């Protein structure tokens, strides 16, 4: 979500809220490198629901426990998605860094009850129309093209030249955006900037350009529909307005692009640094599948998700949650909850992780399957084309982005035998 980690303030937290003297500041170096240790400490000191401070010392609750995250996401009548319920709005400045993620928008993300079912149903139907074999072929073609652009040099930085670009192109293809055009490449770049801004980037301006281009796409497909997600949403009998479709398409594209990019890169990192995968990493499909699933448990791309808002005073994990309090879903912490993994053993053999969330507001089926097609194809194609791929730096030199929301590397430099084109 945001790479703004927040500075510690000496101001007292606003009254009548969960923050108190022991509230944990969400951000800092621990989050950047070893968030799992921080979660363990927080769980030991606070239990399964911890008082935390967001940017600018805004109080919230971080839900760390697996059962508690499942409870919150399964009880929309107690913990709702409409952020206008928040009791902290009087203390939130208009330029607050997390405003893009909590400021109410007319998208499926903030809808509730029947309206959410209507909007999510349209997305589900549209995604179900995607042929997974066709998507895999398209992803392979995109992968081959990207790999060919750097294969002859013997070195590459995979985060920016591969992992970010492939899912962006793939999801735009699914939505019916023409491939290969200059404006499509610009849209791919703006997507990256709006979701994962680097030094000197303007994410707000990039987000506005993305919105304008998707609005154009909806208008084009309204006049000339095709076999794509956008057209299926427009033709759905639920009769969404163009503005609703634009908002929901942006949500779909954003959810597909950055988390999948980090899933690809985190999996490549695991394959290239863990000796368990070294023996048969070259085109080893079983290993790739194991690595993809293990990453969802241990280095899930979406670490934390903001959030849910309490509909009324209630109890959770022994805490009194007040009406209007904000709850941050600690997906990464829940995935490694010792209650479900005794003796600290996290097994990758099942897929009951919360990486795609849970309940009514989880990623709509079949989005996780489509993300898996993108990530698996990206990793397997790269390893098949460049079988002697190795890290270009020592493992400990790899750095994580300073984000409490997304778990992703700043870069993944690699080297390999240059391939003759």
TrEMBL record:
Gene3D superfamilies according to UniProt: Cytochrome P450
Regions of compositional bias (Polar residues) in chain numbering: 1-11
InterPro entries per the UniProt record, alphabetical: Cyt_P450_B (IPR002397), Cyt_P450_sf (IPR036396)
Spans annotated as Disordered: 1-20
Molecular functions (GO terms): heme binding; iron ion binding; monooxygenase activity; oxidoreductase activity, acting on paired donors, with incorporation or reduction of molecular oxygen
Lineage: superkingdom: Bacteria
Entry similarity comment: Belongs to the cytochrome P450 family.
PANTHER family: CYTOCHROME P450 YJIB-RELATED, P450, PUTATIVE (EUROFUNG)-RELATED
Protein name, per record: Cytochrome P450
Organism: Streptomyces cadmiisoli
